[in-house]
Structures are given as structure tokens and as C-alpha cells.
Design goal:
The protein is mainly α and 176 residues long. The chain is built from 8 helices and 2 strands, in the order E-E-H-H-H-H-H-H-H-H.
């Protein structure tokens, strides 16, 4: 493969190495150099897997946490909060069967947070989830977080999450 260089050096190293997290932007840069482009030919499905308001979040989180895909699980936390706010109703009516109390606390906290924002009662399952014994940031499941960012996250975490001892910046959740 020819090496096209951008402002930050080679854009194709991750792609050539088969890196599973190669960025779409890098792929598009490489394709555009010889004049190629991507085009979606199939419409996006409107089934429950692709419609956030109809997604089975309990199953989704159970699969993600059990498989160890914590980075995507964090993205789904934000997706869940946004979809809940947009639908104006709780989308997680039952507690996911998670073996990890950290993620159960995170989901309960986010469910309480979104219900509070909508001035609605949280589903009963959230009251059965106990707060964590120590502060936890979900992002630490897959990467190191430096102290200044920890302090910022703690200062910008909604009270419903802080009550569970889970710390995520509000702006990371309220994307609806």
C-alpha cells in the first residue's frame, strides 16, 4: 500500500496493521487520495437493534460487560441516557443481570438521573442496587485516567450518579 501522509504523519499504519480501532477518518483519507469514496447501498434497518427507543438495553449491557467490551459499554451508557430522554420514558424496565456491581450501579445511577431530568419516578429495580464502596469511573475499565480529569469528572457528575459512587461527566451523558 502506498503511504499517504497527512498533517500528523502516516494515516494508514493502523489500517495496514489490522488495528481493530483504526479510525474511519483515516480510512476515508486513504480512499480519497486516489479518488475513491464510500457509499451506503443498503438502507439502515429500523428494527429493535438499530432503534435506540426499542433496543433491549438489559441484553445489550449484559452482552457488552460479559464480553469485556467496556469502551463500547461506556458509549452505550450515553446512548441509553440520550434515548431515554428522547423517548421521555424509562427504557430499562428491568435490571440487567450483570455480575459486576460497578456496571449495575452505573446503570441505576443513569436511570435515576434521566428519570429525575424528566420529572418521573425511576423504575423500582434501581432502588435494589447498592452504591459502590469506593469511587469508580467507568472509563478506567479500559484506560488510565489522570488525576486532573478525575477531579473534573467528579465535579461534573450528576448527583444521582455520585450517590452510587459512579463518576461520569454530565455532558458525556446528556447528548439528547
Amino acid at each position: 500500500m502506498t503511504d499517504w501522509r497527512g498533517p500528523k504523519g502516516s494515516v494508514n499504519i493502523d489500517l495496514e496493521a489490522g488495528h481493530e480501532r483504526a479510525e474511519l477518518g483515516k480510512t476515508l483519507s486513504i480512499l480519497s487520495a486516489p479518488g475513491l469514496s464510500l457509499e451506503a447501498t443498503d438502507p439502515i434497518s429500523r428494527g429493535s437493534d438499530h432503534d435506540p427507543a426499542r433496543r433491549d438495553y438489559a441484553q445489550t449491557f449484559t452482552e457488552l460487560i460479559n464480553s469485556g467490551d467496556y469502551e463500547f459499554a461506556i458509549k452505550m451508557l450515553a446512548d441509553y441516557a440520550s434515548a431515554f430522554l428522547k423517548a421521555e420514558r424509562p427504557l430499562l424496565q428491568r435490571s440487567p443481570r450483570l455480575r459486576d456491581p460497578h456496571w449495575s450501579a452505573a446503570l441505576a445511577g443513569i436511570t435515576n438521573y434521566t428519570a429525575h431530568r424528566l420529572r418521573q419516578p425511576a423504575p423500582p429495580w434501581t432502588r435494589r442496587i447498592k452504591p459502590l464502596n469506593a469511587a469508580w469511573m467507568p472509563a478506567e475499565s479500559y484506560r488510565r485516567i489522570r488525576e486532573p480529569m478525575k477531579q473534573l469528572a467528579m465535579s461534573e457528575t450528576p448527583p444521582e450518579l455520585a450517590a452510587m459512587n459512579v463518576f461520569i461527566r454530565e455532558r458525556s451523558l446528556a447528548t439528547a
